[in-house]
């Protein structure tokens, strides 16, 4: 990448809820920004449409697109199947990089490293057992259907732990190579990042909104290296906000509206 690149971050674009005209305008508006790189934070479409949207976006935008997937991207399909499809697509498309499948840190600029993972809501904050929230995830994603509440909790924790372990290993290695890092993920990794309608999500919602396994990995690694800086970019709650769980860790949660895909943030490196 060239120095002084313009980075465009997009999260929760949910193109399956947008009309063709709205989608076309959105794709044009992002292209007009002439990004040096795009960070695409998940909830792009659903299982049967996400690969098509990724191909459409990579044909339209003439820059690298680093992406992770969100829970909606697995609806009416399976997590394993859609992840495999995304990995295969990215391997054959020079513009697309699926960060969940990338074990090594990537250069976002000569001095800033990029890692990422989809993450998963692992029900480690709030009160999962008392929560009456029935996410569509639990009806529409193969791995999460046919569970009672207790066995579903085990599956959510397993998915969260896989993400947390991947981020722990990537962060430990990335931190040796860069002083500044970005981490792109779908779920807020801390309760303080769980913004919704200007407030932090309550006990009912936060179990379904937070990937604490990634949060624990971030805290464990970044606490030992106060001279290094990490910026986390996440979405999922559709509520905008920022928090600073450690002096050297800043988390930005992107806002979103269904049917109105929009640019979350633009900045120059
Ligand atoms: Fe979303
Ligand atoms: Fe989501």
Task: Please describe what this structure looks like.
The protein has helices at residues 20-32, 50-60, 79-92, 137-140, 149-177, 212-223, and strands spanning 6-10, 37-40, 65-67, 96-98, 106-109, 112-117, 180-185, 195-196, 199-200, 229-234, 241-246, 249-253, 265-268. It has 269 residues and is of the alpha/beta class. The chain has a single domain (6-268), classed as Purple Acid Phosphatase, chain A, domain 2 (4-Layer Sandwich), CATH 3.60.21.10. The strands form three sheets. Strands 5-6-7-10-12-11 form a six-stranded mixed β-sheet. The longest helix has 29 residues, at 149-177. The N and C termini lie close together (11 Å). The mean pLDDT is 96. Residues 12, 14, 43, 70, 72, 236, 238, 256 line the site of one fe (ii) ion. The site of one fe (ii) ion has 8 residues, from loops.
Any chance you could write out the topology, listing elements then pairs?
Layout: E1 6-10, H1 20-32, E2 37-40, H2 50-60, E3 65-67, H3 79-92, E4 96-98, E5 106-109, E6 112-117, H4 137-140, H5 149-177, E7 180-185, E8 195-196, E9 199-200, H6 212-223, E10 229-234, E11 241-246, E12 249-253, E13 265-268
Parallel strand pairs: 1-2, 2-3, 3-4, 6-7, 7-10, 10-12
Antiparallel strand pairs: 1-13, 5-6, 8-9, 11-12
The structure holds fe (ii) ion (2 copies).
């Amino acid at each position: 990448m060239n120095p002084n690149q313009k980075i465009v971050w997009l999260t929760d674009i949910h193109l399956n809820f947008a009309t063709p005209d709205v989608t076309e305008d959105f794709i044009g508006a992002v292209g007009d920004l002439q990004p040096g790189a795009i960070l695409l934070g998940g909830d792009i479409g659903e299982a049967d449409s996400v690969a098509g949207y990724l191909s459409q976006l990579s044909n339209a935008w003439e820059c690298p697109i680093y992406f992770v997937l969100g829970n909606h991207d697995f609806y009416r399909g399976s997590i394993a199947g859609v992840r495999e499809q995304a990995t295969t697509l990215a391997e054959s498309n020079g513009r697309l990089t699926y960060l969940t499948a990338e074990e090594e840190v990537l250069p976002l600029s000569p001095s800033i490293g990029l890692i990422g993972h989809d993450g998963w809501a692992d029900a480690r904050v709030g009160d999962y057992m008392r929560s009456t929230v029935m996410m569509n995830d639990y009806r529409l994603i193969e791995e999460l259907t046919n569970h009672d509440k207790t066995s579903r909790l085990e599956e959510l924790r397993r998915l969260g732990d896989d993400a947390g372990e991947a981020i722990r290993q990537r962060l430990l290695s990335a931190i040796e190579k860069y002083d500044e890092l970005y981490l792109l993920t779908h779920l807020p990794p801390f309760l303080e990042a769980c913004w919704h309608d200007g407030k932090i999500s309550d006990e009912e919602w936060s179990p379904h909104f937070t990937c604490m396994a990634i949060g624990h990995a971030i805290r464990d690694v970044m606490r030992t290296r106060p001279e290094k800086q990490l910026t986390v970019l996440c979405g999922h709650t559709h509520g905008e906000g920022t928090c600073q769980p450690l002096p050297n860790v800043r988390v930005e949660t992107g806002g979103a509206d269904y049917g109105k895909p929009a640019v979350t943030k633009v900045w120059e490196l």
